[in-house]
Write a structure and sequence with these properties.
single chain; 377 residues; alpha/beta; Rossmann fold; 3 domains; three-stranded antiparallel beta sheet; 15 helices; 11 strands; 16% strand; globular; UCP010256
């Protein structure tokens, strides 16, 4: 999206309104703000009512926040400050894409974490120590072990395919009307995408290094693996992990992620991920694995909303928490109880061996997480 100083003067209020909505936690993507300005251009506009209709159509507030959206519109365009909804915060979730795109900023409400989590942003860096290549087997098996889907592309087949009419007609012409055997094609089977979302907050400090090594092996072993980290910010690190040497890849990732060992805003950061079209496309039809303790205390509405949306997009949605390594663990927190019905898996994320075995088993069907943990409880 273009910056304010390069825009026509008349477009500045529309750009400013998009920034205002982000400031108050609305998941507005840069593409939506551009669409808003284009819609206003098409409408004229003849009145403020046209601007309002364009904003509703392109910025798309959810029904539960429609009144808040109207209040902000009245305040911004009419100067009616009494209409502004109280209780908002200025905490933000920044999105960083290592693929070379401009950094987007998507504001989000402050959310409390668990006993070891905090919504207060603390920025730091990290150095990864050299480790032996213990994930070689996982990297070698991953591509063939991932769940598969049927592609729309086809390949030649000798049996159990559909008639390749175009190729058959060419053969008929070249053979003077005689085709000795039918020519067939069938749809290809390709591995599904693998999406890893890694919690790098302070409560996950003991496991982050191993998770990043697992992520590096996943990117090296699967062509369509995508890796994001989240804490108080959301960062795409897939590009860094494509470097073959593990030490160099982790060093590059360490330099890109700014929120190591800080607070966590799991719900808002996942909503921010879903609000960017090019990111949410990674989750469509993918095997999504979230590596987090999911300590979301207090109002967990945003986390529940984000997980439901992820579940609707993903082929399989899994949560791997190191807390499940304790035999006494039960999904007893309000946040875990709320998201358990939409999870396909809730598994132990405390060891690399357990995680690699689980990811390599994603193609095999399993009972839903809610059914398993209901029996355990």
């Amino acid at each position: 999206m273009m910056r304010g100083e390069s825009l026509p003067r008349a477009a500045a209020p529309m750009l400013g309104f998009g920034r205002l909505l982000r400031h108050y936690g609305f998941p507005v993507a840069p593409e939506q703000v551009s669409g808003f300005m284009q819609a206003v251009t098409l409408l004229g506009p003849r009145s403020i009512a046209d601007i309002r209709e364009a904003a509703l159509a392109t910025l798309a507030p959810t029904p539960d926040r429609r009144d808040e959206f109207e209040a902000h519109f009245q305040s911004y365009f009419y100067g009616n400050t009494s209409a502004v909804v109280e209780g908002d915060t200025d905490e933000e979730t920044r999105i960083k894409d290592d693929g070379g795109a401009n950094e987007d900023q998507i504001e989000a409400k402050q959310d409390e974490g668990g006993d070891l989590s905090s919504a207060v942003e603390q920025l730091s860096t990290r150095d990864f120590q050299r480790d032996d290549a213990k994930l070689t087997t996982f990297r070698r098996k991953l591509a063939s072990a991932l769940p598969a889907r049927r592609s729309f592309r086809t390949v030649r087949a000798h049996s159990r395919g559909k008639l390749d009419l175009r190729r058959s007609l060419r053969e008929i012409v070249s053979a003077d009307g005689d085709v000795p055997s039918p020519l067939l094609r069938r749809r290809q089977t390709v591995p599904r995408k693998l999406l890893l979302l890694i919690d790098v907050s302070g409560s996950m400090k003991l496991h982050t290094s191993d998770y990043l090594k697992l992520a590096h092996a996943a990117v090296q072993g699967a062509d369509r693996a995508e890796i994001f980290t989240f804490g108080t910010r959301l960062t795409r690190i897939t590009g860094a992990l494509r470097i073959r040497d593990c030490d160099q890849a982790l060093a590059r990732a360490a330099a890109q992620v700014d929120d190591w060992d800080g607070g966590t805003r799991m719900g808002p950061t996942l909503l921010a991920f879903l609000s960017v079209p090019r990111f949410s496309a990674f989750a469509r039809g993918a095997a999504v694995v979230i590596l987090s303790d999911a300590l979301e205390r207090g109002d967990h509405a945003e986390l529940e909303t984000a997980m439901r949306r992820l579940s609707a997009r993903a082929f399989r949605l899994s949560l791997a928490t190191p807390l499940a390594g304790d035999p006494r663990f039960r999904p007893a927190t309000a946040a875990l109880r709320a998201i358990l019905p939409v999870l396909d898996d809730l598994v132990d994320g405390s060891s690399i061996s357990g995680l690699t075995d689980f990811i390599l088993s994603l193609a095999r069907p399993a009972a839903a997480a809610a059914a398993i943990w209901k029996r355990v409880s």
